[in-house]
Inverse folding.
C-alpha cells in the first residue's frame, strides 16, 4: 500500500466514513500532514506519526479542545484521534490582513482571560519533540524556574549545547525572578507555543490557532513567543490585545525574560547559536536587576 492509501485507511477506520481524495501538504519533522476530502464533502487535515512520541496526539487534541472551549481565538474542530493519527477541521489558508490581526489580538485576549486553575497542569505535554513538564505550582516565578528554565538548562548541558559557564549565567538570572517578573497575575490559559508558524491566516478573515502546548501560565509568555521569530502585523495584534485586556506596566521590558524558555528549547533541540542567544538574554537580565 502507498503512504496515501495507508493514511486514508487510518482516517476511515477512525471516523467511520470514506475518504474520496488525499493530498500531501508541507509539514514539520514530527508529523506528516495530509489533506482529506471525505465522502460527505468535508475537508479535513490528518496528522500521522513520523517522529511523534506516544501520547502526542491525545495531548494535542486535549489542548485544542481546551482552547476551543475558551471561545476566544478560533481553533479547528477535532474530528477524532488515536495514537497513530489526529483528524481535524481543514482551515483554508489565506493572506495576513490588518483587520484579521486586530481581531486576533482581541480574540487571544479572550482566550487568555478564560484562565486556568493553576500555573501548569493538568498533564505534562510537548513543545515540539521536547517534553513539557506541567506539574502545578503556586506562583508563576516558581513554575517558570523549575518547570521551564532549569530542566532545559540541564538537558542542554547534557547534550553539550550549553557550557557550565553559560548555565551559571542563566541560573543566576532565574534566581532574580521575583524582581524581574513584574506585577503578580492570575494564571492565563496559554497556547504555549505561539510562534507565527502555529497561526493559520484563513481565507475567512480569521486567524486560527494550531499545534498548541496548552497550560496555565503568564499571558506575556504567549505574546513574547509571538514576537521571538516575528509575525505579520505583530504590533497591530499587540495593540488590539492591549486595548482589550491592558498589559501591566513594563511588559515590553519583560519580553526577553519570557523568551528565555523557547530559546532554551531550541538550544536543546538544535544547538547552534541558540545557547549563546539564551545566555545573552540572561546576561541582560542580570545587568538589569543589578542596576
Amino acid at each position: 500500500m502507498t503512504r496515501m492509501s495507508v493514511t486514508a485507511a487510518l482516517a476511515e477506520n477512525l471516523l467511520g466514513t470514506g475518504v474520496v481524495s488525499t493530498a500531501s501538504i508541507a509539514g514539520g519533522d514530527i508529523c506528516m500532514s495530509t489533506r482529506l476530502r471525505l465522502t460527505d464533502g468535508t475537508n479535513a487535515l490528518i496528522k500521522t506519526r513520523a517522529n511523534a512520541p506516544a501520547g502526542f496526539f491525545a495531548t494535542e487534541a486535549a489542548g485544542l479542545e481546551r482552547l476551543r472551549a475558551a471561545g476566544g481565538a478560533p481553533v479547528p474542530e477535532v474530528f477524532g484521534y488515536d495514537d497513530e493519527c489526529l483528524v481535524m477541521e481543514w482551515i483554508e489558508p489565506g493572506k495576513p490582513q490588518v483587520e484579521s490581526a486586530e481581531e486576533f489580538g482581541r480574540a487571544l485576549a479572550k482566550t487568555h482571560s478564560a484562565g486556568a486553575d493553576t500555573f501548569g497542569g493538568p498533564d505534562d505535554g510537548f513543545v515540539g519533540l521536547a517534553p513539557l513538564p506541567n506539574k502545578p505550582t503556586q506562583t508563576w516565578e516558581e513554575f517558570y524556574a523549575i518547570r521551564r528554565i532549569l530542566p532545559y538548562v540541564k538537558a542542554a548541558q547534557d547534550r553539550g549545547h550549553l557550557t557550565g559557564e553559560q548555565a551559571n549565567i542563566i541560573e543566576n538570572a532565574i534566581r532574580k525572578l521575583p524582581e524581574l517578573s513584574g506585577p503578580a497575575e492570575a494564571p492565563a490559559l496559554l497556547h504555549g507555543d505561539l510562534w507565527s508558524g502555529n497561526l493559520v491566516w484563513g481565507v475567512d478573515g480569521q486567524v486560527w490557532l494550531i499545534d498548541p502546548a496548552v497550560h496555565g501560565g503568564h499571558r506575556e509568555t504567549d505574546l513574547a513567543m509571538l514576537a521571538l521569530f516575528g509575525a505579520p502585523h505583530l504590533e497591530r495584534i499587540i495593540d488590539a490585545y492591549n486595548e482589550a485586556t491592558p498589559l501591566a506596566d513594563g511588559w515590553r521590558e519583560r519580553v526577553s525574560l519570557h523568551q528565555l524558555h523557547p530559546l532554551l528549547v531550541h538550544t536543546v533541540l538544535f544547538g547552534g547559536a541558540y545557547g549563546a542567544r539564551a545566555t545573552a538574554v540572561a546576561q541582560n537580565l542580570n545587568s538589569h536587576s543589578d542596576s
User: Anything to note?
Assistant: Residues 140-158 form the longest helix (19 residues). The mean pLDDT is 95.
